[in-house]
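Hey, can you fold this one?
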Amino acid sequence: VLAGLLVVASVLPLMVAHRMPKASSIATRGENHVIYPAEGLGTLRAEGRIVFVDMTADWCVTCKANEKAVLNTPAFRELLATHDAVMMTGDWTNVDPAITAFLEEHGAVGVPLYVVYRRGGGAGEVLPTVLTQDGMRQAFERAAR
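Sure. Predicted structure:
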């Protein structure tokens, strides 16, 4: 009986997970904020949106400082809304191969990596490692042109 209960207990979570709705290619974290998948980046760029990519990790001290000083502020949220931009965050805490490929593509050896993609297409602009509100405003103005 105990063995049967263990089998049922181990299979039940798999059955529940199988019934869950499939995730879209763009998972949201909030208004104007999505989680990085490469195909989601392509979709947003094809829609003509300005995309700000934030590659970060839980153990990255510089990332946390930038989040506190710039990225998690009302001024930055307003900047996103004003420019109809999307922030896309990739979490490299556990060294995701897709994020590693993105880092290598942009010549980065680690995080943080910040890239702004223009509304009209083209290559992304790699931003400095340490962010400022003024620097972000200028980058978004260039991306809107």
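The first helix runs from residue 2 to 19. Let me know if you want another pass with a different chain boundary.
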